[in-house]
């Protein structure tokens, strides 16, 4: 997959079938649009493409709460590539693009830059200045300028329309089962293992600690059944998200105890996938009480992993 990170880089592009969208979660609905773009391009002898923005457009607007990411940028690219896309246009959303009229976006970018022959998007896709462009405008312009349009209907799972906002909501609620169902994969946090307070090691539950990325949506404080991937191998694990109130005042972080694992991971990269929430975080009266609760949680998590082998 060729990746273009600016409009200036885009030159001499072969005819394309372009999937349009933020694709900020690459959930099942997004995947359906991207897969159809690949299939249509293959059938017509064109290149398949995704046009998206590297930053969420709403984050350029004033007086609006920032939209947190569901996926790390490298994971977004990896998943899109795995779906068979030839070109990924990962363009910064700037003031100039924000103020571009919808018709100019079609003429200058989609047709002029991307050499688009067919466009695919969701039913609620908007673009152009003040989001005036929509699927109706795409259909009108396609008749004048001879390009195909496919508008995807709402993608539903168990009667629920799947959307990135719904997935953010489920992550924020700690509903990892629903989140996995809508994403088509487990929600995950990844990063470099940092040094913690080492209390877990002292009480028999050594943990690998990750700092919370404030730009990412994160689960609520609590204990989760997880699996941890290190060096390409997935291990059963249990994870606490929170402030460790029993032992002091700490910034929110993610600490994972990997079962039957004795390697030192400080400075190493790991990925923690969230499977199911066990309980909320709470403050215990003593470290001894905390240790007993951790033991009970580990027994529950191990039973889960035996039933749902990693």
TrEMBL record:
This protein's record includes keyword Ribosomal protein: no
Pathway membership: Cofactor biosynthesis; FMN biosynthesis; FMN from riboflavin (ATP route): step 1/1; Cofactor biosynthesis; FAD biosynthesis; FAD from FMN: step 1/1
SUPFAM superfamilies assigned: Nucleotidylyl transferase, Riboflavin kinase-like
Pfam families with a match to the protein in the record: FAD_syn (PF06574), Flavokinase (PF01687)
Catalyzed chemical reaction(s): FMN + ATP + H(+) = FAD + diphosphate; riboflavin + ATP = FMN + ADP + H(+)
An example Gene Ontology molecular-function term: riboflavin kinase activity
Record's signal peptide: none
InterPro entries per record: FAD_synthase, Riboflavin_kinase, Riboflavin_kinase_bac, Riboflavin_kinase_bac/euk, Riboflavin_kinase_dom_sf, Rossmann-like_a/b/a_fold
Top-level division of the source organism's lineage: Bacteria
Membrane-spanning parts: none
Keyword annotations of the record: ATP-binding, FAD, Flavoprotein, FMN, Kinase, Multifunctional enzyme, Nucleotide-binding, Nucleotidyltransferase, Transferase
E.C. designation(s): 2.7.1.26, 2.7.7.2
Riboflavin kinase domain location: 182-306
NCBIfam families in alphabetical order: PRK05627.1-3, PRK05627.1-5, ribF
Family named by the database record: Belongs to the ribF family.
Record-given protein name: Riboflavin biosynthesis protein
